[in-house]
UniProtKB/TrEMBL annotation:
Pfam families: SNF5 (PF04855). It comes from the Eukaryota. The keyword Mitochondrion does not apply. It is found in: Nucleus. This is Chromatin structure-remodeling complex protein BSH.
Length: 250
């Protein structure tokens, strides 16, 4: 597969797994009427959803599980695919990012504990090929170890990709907050934004302004806190001594 161009922290890419194959790690752990089914595998999110039910029926038949497992397996897979697809199309930062991958697995009689670095900008990377080389170098003969190692890598890369989407989103909010701060009109009197004067009409002004400015405590929000306390301390000394408040509760 052709490698995607290298990115920097200032140039986000659209969400996908930072590997050659854009596969979703699926984990199942279902128990019905004393029967338990556990499995872990990857799924191509581009496959039609009809394949999910076909897979569930075939799995139940091959493993001789109760028929009730068909619906539970299909539903669990579909839910995890929906979660993955909810991030598609969103910006994701990778940057010059080398991340640690940790392995702590027990597969049959084999215990794996290791840690290594992974390049998130290498969209040509192949966890399955890495796992095969890993097992060969360590002389591991159990055929189930390789897939388990590859799956563990993909699970961690998936979590990191989700975090990178959140980072890109927070960056957009911060930049938007800065743009708002630069364009807020200022009154001639005291340098206080004109719209802020209207907001001080009741005691819920901070909550209302927090909604306007966004999720994070931007520079505007902190300025509001300062203005709020300055306004509160503006009460004449005699009123403060008597503990009197005006109708706004300030």
């Amino acid at each position: 597969m052709k490698a995607l161009p290298s990115t920097s922290s200032k140039a986000p890419v659209k969400f996908r797994m930072p590997t050659a194959d854009n596969l979703v790690p699926i984990r199942l752990d279902i128990e019905i009427d004393g029967h338990r089914f556990r499995d872990a595998f990857t799924w191509n999110p581009s496959d039609p959803d009809s394949e999910v039910v076909i897979f569930a029926k075939r799995t139940v038949k091959d493993l001789k599980l109760p028929p009730a497992f068909v619906m539970q397996i299909a539903q669990s897979i579909q839910t995890q695919l929906t979660d993955f697809r909810s991030y598609e199309g969103q910006d994701m930062y990778t940057g010059e990012k080398i991340v640690p991958i940790k392995l702590d697995l027990r597969v049959n009689h084999t215990l794996i504990k290791d840690q290594f670095l992974w390049d998130l900008n290498n969209f040509d990377s192949d966890p399955e090929e890495f796992a095969r080389t890993f097992c060969k170098d360590l002389g591991i003969k159990d055929p189930e170890v390789g897939p388990a190692v590859a799956f563990a890598i993909r699970e961690q890369l998936y979590e990191i990709a989700i975090q990178n989407v959140a980072t890109a989103r927070e960056s957009r909010i911060t930049k938007k907050g800065r743009r708002v701060a630069e364009h807020v009109p200022v009154s001639k009197a005291g340098g206080i934004p004109v719209d802020l004067m209207k907001i001080f009409s009741n005691k819920y002004s901070i909550v209302r302004f927090s909604y306007i400015s966004g999720k994070e405590k931007s520079g505007i929000y902190m300025s509001l806190l300062l203005i709020f306390y300055q306004t509160r301390n503006w009460m004449p000394l005699k009123q403060r001594k008597r503990g009197m408040l005006d109708d706004r509760g300030i």
